[in-house]
Amino acid sequence: MNREGDVMIENIFVSTDQSGEQIACESVELKAHKGIVGDRYFGKMRHPGQNLTLVEAEEIEAFCAQTGRALDKTLTRRNIVTRGVRLNELVGREFRIGNAVLRGVELCEPCSKLAGSLATESLSAKDVVERWLHRAGLRADVVESGVIAIGNPIQTNNTKAAE
Predict the structure, then answer these.
(1) What is the DSSP string of 95-133?
(2) Domain 8-149 is classified in which CATH homologous superfamily?
């Protein structure tokens, strides 16, 4: 397991509809196999990994440094912004946040919505997709219900989750 304080939740966002505003939350309730209570995808399990999405604060900061622009974290449309953990390494692994257990399902690759929201006159949507490819975060499912909050550590282990 990681030492507490090494990795943590920096921001939590929910949106009640697909195009709606991302609302910042101090904490949220996660329900097993359903997702974040109150989020647009809660209970909509059309495919694995739809319960919630995560993105690394470090990748947002790198994008800002490379493009010279400030970025509102809500524009990534991800539910959870993390610090100190390589999310790509959590594909196929279980991890704990607060008293909830999640399983990393697949990378959350950039989509046209992300590209459109981050594109500028000097940075095309295609450039945005190329920059965020394999860096746009993780799709995860909730395995055990619980509450997560800003500042919670993310506890991982080095073994693959049972399929």
Answers:
(1) EEETTEEEEEEEE----HHHHHHH--SSS-HHHHHHHHT
(2) PK beta-barrel domain-like (2.40.33.20)
Pairing state of beta strands 154-156 and 94-97?
antiparallel
CA distance 63 to 109: 15
Extract the tokens encoding 159: 């073994």
The domain segmentation of the chain, as residue ranges, is 8-149
Give the model confidence (pLDDT) of 63-109 as tens digits.
Answer: 999 888 888 898 888 999 999 999 999 999 999 999 999 999 999 98
Q: Which two tokens stand for residue 11?
A: 């921001």
Tell me the residue ranges of DSSP E strands in the chain: 8-14, 23-24, 27-31, 35-36, 52-56, 80-83, 94-97, 100-107, 138-144, 146-149, 154-156
